[in-house]
Amino acid sequence: MSKQIKTNELAEIVTGLLVRPDLMGELDESATHERFIEAIGQVVADFCGGEINGVAPANQPAGMAPDYINTPYLSVYPSESLPSLEKCVWSAYDTEGWEGHTSEELGLTVGVAPTEAQIREHRQNLQALLSQAYKAELVTTDRAPKPTIEQQYIYGSDGSLCPACGCDMIEGDGINIDCNRAIQEVSCNECGVEWVDIYILRHIQSEDFNPDDPARALDLDDA
């Protein structure tokens, strides 16, 4: 028999190998990891367009920056194989990287470049896909591992049902905020259990400024 790997499960494997291969116990050597990154990039380019130009290694010594920040870079040139420069799989990333190139010179359809807000929404939707797939898997398949109480509470009921008895008679106290984390004590009026909800700051919105504008970002080294 063979393993039957679903697309979201394959995405989990590839994500782990790309972003944190150490957690997978694979690709221990930097050169091996970079070859894997280039190979995955080439697969995307083969099906969706673009010309892969190799991988640049991480530009800071290990331990000097967070793992998710100090990573190798995949270099991608525009090519005639793209549908357009403005609307392709690469268009939401490094939006200044293809400056000087135009769809006209490559004989491509001229598209409308996405706004920063559209890019942000697009990336948030992509980043949520694995969680959404896992949530659906928990409630629709027998193959999925038995969920923990925490997983059922967060993904199964969106935090609206008591994790102990399943009723909706839950009540939360005031929210305490500590830097990028907020904590709320919650209790069930039906069975009497108590627990703590933990919220993590992920995004901000404002009508007074553009949160995505790098020109207005603070220099934290001088703050």
Structure class: alpha+beta
Residue runs with pLDDT of under 50 for 5 or more positions: none
The largest sheet is:
3 strands, antiparallel
Q: Domain count, please report it.
A: 2
User: Order of strands across the widest beta sheet?
Assistant: 3-4-5
Strand % is: 15-25%
Helix content: 25-40%
Q: Note the gap between the termini.
A: 59 Å
User: What is the general shape?
Assistant: globular
- Summed over residues and divided by their number, the pLDDT gives a mean of 85
Q: What's the number of helices? A: 6
How many whole angstroms does the radius of gyration measure?
22 Å
SSE succession:
HHHEEHHHEEE
Record field, number of beta strands: 5
Provide a descriptive summary of the structure in words.
The protein has 223 residues and is an alpha+beta fold. It folds into two domains: 114 residues, no CATH class; 80 residues, N-terminal domain of TfIIb. The strands form two sheets. The chain has a three-stranded antiparallel beta sheet with strand order 3-4-5, with no helix packed on it. It has a two-stranded antiparallel ribbon with strand order 1-2. Helix 5 crosses helix 6. The radius of gyration is 22 Å and the shape is globular. It starts with 6 loop residues before the first helix and ends in a 23-residue tail after the last strand. The relative contact order is 0.07. The model has no long low-confidence stretch (mean pLDDT 85).
